[in-house]
Design goal:
The protein is of the alpha+beta class. 62% of the residues lie in helices and 13% in strands. Strand 1 and strand 2 (9-13) form a beta hairpin.
């Protein structure tokens, strides 16, 4: 299980079972071209760096200086199309993807790991969208990364001039 830190909490990222992978991939198929660049930035650590710097800046009187040395341009370019694609999804599909992905995420509570989402309900009241999205993206990368890379590679090859 992959471990990531988002905000002040550590999370264990599980993998969706094959049937859930199929159902999630069907729902995100229209946005796969926009997800691929974001997954690349996540793999480089862009989201974690951003979350860490924003958290530090929020605690520092001179927060702007903390962010001045961070190049988030690649992450920003990748995240904007993803946000647009997510906005274009039906509520039903967006809820399904978010809840299904969060169902395999566990939070380290200090005394063990606890499910973040159970039976479609969040188990922690302090979770906000800015924390949930990196968790969902981590699940997508872990569960569908090879599948998405394959589709993007195939699309790239098919679009090459012959």
């Amino acid at each position: 299980m992959e471990r990531i830190t988002v905000g002040q909490h550590s999370y264990a990222i599980g993998k969706l079972d094959v049937f859930s992978q199929a159902h999630v991939s069907r729902r995100i198929a229209p946005v796969i071209p926009t997800i691929a660049p974001l997954l690349t930035e996540v793999a480089k650590g862009g989201i974690q760096e951003m979350v860490d710097k924003l958290e530090l800046a929020s605690k520092d009187e001179n927060g702007g200086a903390v962010l001045a040395d961070v190049d988030l341009s690649g992450l920003a370019k990748a995240a904007l199309p993803f946000a647009d694609a997510l906005a274009g999804m039906s509520d039903e599909n967006a809820d399904y993807v978010l809840k299904k992905c969060l169902s395999v995420v566990k939070r380290d509570t200090g005394g063990g790991l606890a499910n973040v989402c159970s039976n479609g309900s969040l188990m922690f009241d302090d979770l906000e969208l800015g924390e949930i999205l990196p968790l969902v993206i981590a699940v997508l990368r872990t569960s569908l990364g090879n599948f998405i890379r394959g589709l993007v590679t195939k699309a790239t090859i098919e679009n090459q001039p012959t």
